[in-house]
Amino acid sequence: MYSVLWLIDWVVQAYTYLLFAYIVIDLLVKFGVVNAYNRVVYVVMDFLSKIIEPALRPIRNVMPNLGGIDLSPVVLVLALQFGLRLLHELVASLA
């Protein structure tokens, strides 16, 4: 059971790191630091967008519009970490 918990923990942490990478690269493109027409940047952004956006879209639909501020990644990270903590407590209570 602990190996399954370790695997889930690793997947959630990897997804969180990919989410942070998506946020950083998106900000760099928006501020013009990185050229979005660069082939490598485009491929990385496309890959991260296909992985991250399906999880962010439902959160953005529920949250109110705050102008140019997008807090959906923060909500997603908090939800992932809360779910992971809840899973750890559940496994600890069963042991």
Would you give an account of this structure?
By secondary structure, this protein is mainly alpha-helical. The protein has one domain. Helices cover 80% and strands 0% of the residues. Helix 1 (2-30) packs across helix 2. The protein is globular and about 50 Å long.
Descriptive terms for the model:
single chain; mainly alpha; globular
- What's the pLDDT, averaged over the residues? 93
End-to-end separation in angstroms reads 10 Å
Low-confidence stretches: none
SSE series: HHH
Total strand count, please?
Answer: 0
Tally of separate helices: 3
Helix content: over 70%
Determine the structural class based on helices, strands and strand pairing.
mainly alpha
The Rg value, from CA coordinates, equals: 16 Å
Sheet bearing the most strands, described?
A: none
What percentage of the residues does DSSP assign to strands (E)?
Answer: under 5%
- Overall number of structural domains: 1
Q: What would the principal axes of the Cα set say about the shape? A: globular
What's the layout of helices and strands?
Elements: H1 2-30, H2 39-62, H3 72-94
Helix pairs in contact: 1-2, 1-3, 2-3
What is the gist of this entry?
The chain is mainly alpha-helical and 95 residues long.
